[in-house]
């Protein structure tokens, strides 16, 4: 049995699955249920400063997009930070941590960008016995209009400044939660590191309008005829999150900075992918909001089964293993030639590969052979793009097969076993000349 | 309360509730949720096999995608463009041997997309809303076309002709239009007077006059219609059933399955219909299955469906066979009737077992006697009609690929079951009528 336990910034948890700061972690009742179900840790829903709490809208707070059979693919929310009294939250955090000492308890915080505000709240959080804090610099809606959340996360100088305050006024490990609503995620990550943050977590939600009500011509969710952009999350955002995680993991300036991965983690496989790109833990919200807390059991058991199968005894055994393989396009091997191959025994003859290739790609798949419906790759036309694989409804029916000898029937050029990339390609005007 | 033990041929074998339940819709309309879940299963195939398998070439992936995209009305329009009787075809088509057999998910999982039920969802949605008829008539051409027979072929032909701006008169022998849709389909496939409602809806196109009680040979003739109209379409179906030519086939209790089915369809109150305690249905097509299942639903104690050839050769699909079996019909294969016995009415049918000897079906000499007080013969139908000098091909009307009668009248088209090569399928008849109408239009406007 694989050991799923993690030690992230010295914070131990029995597995890498934490619930992200969000509605599922807003109060003791939910968090206790989560721990009972098996979650390794939680990031308590973001606390604001003392005094009257924020208020939420009383209309709909979520919008969504769905795949077939109404499977939830993307969720958008306009909920703000906790709308419960600070004192109640602090008391509950203290109690829950006491009852569940083996679980990670991180507290998310968002207060105005003033030193005094942070100085005031940090000791209060520390007093709860929590294991760490997460700075919410990511929330893209509502709070950002008040100069908090993403409004801070979009300005690297602010990130650095607040991180410094937190390190100054608290002994707790500091995780900076990054917003994806920027152009280059490396800058805020570098700022967090420069400010002394112990880790970053990402991504927070993406600014979004999920749909428009065509009867009332208003964004969804609609509150009395109006809508506002929300924060987008769920399986649909995973590719964006993975890329941003990888960018930070391989950036020479932030390499080695611990990362808690967030963004559409729905199965053990998603978690394994985030960890392979360098994450020490993952945070989950939408999957729990869709299926309930029990989902963690599939995740933990699935990860464990996969690790057993692959011979990884601990999370560290495969953590960051994919990072060295993330590279720039210019370093990809241009001598690597693949051709699509259709397994005729698995093919159900839907023809989607043909029409995708015919209409939108390289006209490399037949629709009939000798007058009979038959889908076959014409290797002299196939550029190896992989579109057919992606539109095929059957697993493994179409695979990409590497050519290792002979000549590429499309170009007529012999297969070159050596690696060669764009930087030295003759068509590249910027190609570096080999030294004389 | 069941009174199935009553011997002989009797009505009121079941309680009112049992009749109502037995003759309710066999495949109730999908709910919006069910339709969306099912529509999501469609892969939107290229050059879709289902579409190729549909005799009317309905763009099935497109109509399903429209359901999926929340546009069931548009979906119905896609269906009606190819098949104006798409609502009835959704109910009666043997989809398991047509579109659904060809569905790639049948290949993938042995579970095709429920195309027939989705088609019904779309067409019923359209027809249940107070929407204008989906097609508009073209400018009047001044041409007049006679359509003989208000069955699927004739209705389809008439609608397409009217759409092209021609004036159409339909001549129908029976008191109601619809042909097989009205008289020849199992009740549970077209409940709620659907055949008549569909025809009323179809007639909204305008330009179609319906004349009932007009029988070829007595009230009208091919020759006179050909003279008084610019074109004539004959779609009179196969009105007469073949009779069993064995000793005892004239005994009371023996009748044609199509007459039994027609009576059943026309009966407002099914409890008034007499049915035998023990029923034997002879034949292997859909009519045989419809008669057998409905005998059971009327309260017969035993129903045997006896087919002279093997299960594999049975024209009724495996689905239809299983439907019959599920209703308690006893399926007997490789047995041909040799004698019907009884004192004053039928009491039993004797069958001889058969085997295939090359191309020939031969008796084995071994016999079996099945008790019966009602025998329904479903061994095929023929065209009993006065068709003047129209050329025949065997026992049906000869036709060109454009569904034109080759001789001797230059302006007569034919289609549906009465035309050579007819397949005894509503959907094929609809296509015949459509092809004929397009060809008539082309010819008249040339």
From TrEMBL, chain A:
Its EC number is 1.3.1.1. It catalyses: 5,6-dihydrothymine + NAD(+) = thymine + NADH + H(+); 5,6-dihydrouracil + NAD(+) = uracil + NADH + H(+). Keywords: Iron, Iron-sulfur, Metal-binding, Oxidoreductase. GO terms for cellular component: cytoplasm. It holds the Pfam family Fer4_21. Involved in pyrimidine base degradation. Catalyzes physiologically the reduction of uracil to 5,6-dihydrouracil (DHU) by using NADH as a specific cosubstrate. It also catalyzes the reverse reaction and the reduction of thymine to 5,6-dihydrothymine (DHT). This is dihydrouracil dehydrogenase (NAD(+)). It comes from Hoeflea olei.
